[in-house]
Amino acid sequence: MDQRDLVIAIPNSILKAQGTGAQIPVRFAVTRFGNPNASSSESQYVVVRSKDETPGGVEGLQGPSFNTTGQGVVGPIENPDGADVFVAPYLNIQKDQLVQFTFTAFDDNNTPIEEAHFQDARELDSPDVINGYTFKVPAQNLKRICKGYGEASFKVIPGSDSNQSPATSRITRVRINMSWPQTGCAWIA
Length: 189
Prior knowledge:
Number of helices: 3
Structural class: mainly beta
CATH topology of the largest domain: Immunoglobulin-like
Oligomer: single chain
Distance between the termini: 60 Å
CATH class of the largest domain: Mainly Beta
Largest sheet: 6 strands, mixed
């Protein structure tokens, strides 16, 4: 900041009254004490965003949900072709938002299993806005874990014509046990 810069705090009440948007005009006028002549600035356009309008709203995005047993475990019976991980509709969901999904795996000692890492992305369409979207962690990725844990989260990137800011969900952590009672994890290639 230059010594001649003038920093002006804008009260929240003015921002709320004006609203949010990508092209909010801002200008100011300055007067000196004892001089009635005002000097006005040119208008500048600024982006004004509100947490109320971000994906997930003020409370943020909940983590995605896995298809699990009644005990909350991802296993081979419930997930023979890969794990379905559901992103439910959230506050301020919009068509054309990009949802980036990330799955990270860990063994029983909480050491990351890089070979089981998985990422995917989906640009939301109208049915997704109403119904949510299900990502699928491939069966091969789950088999590489055998017994351990999985964590999933997603990031929402608003469309280019949106005034929203990106938002990241909470992380959902689940127990994973892809072994079979008779063979354990011997079936894993």
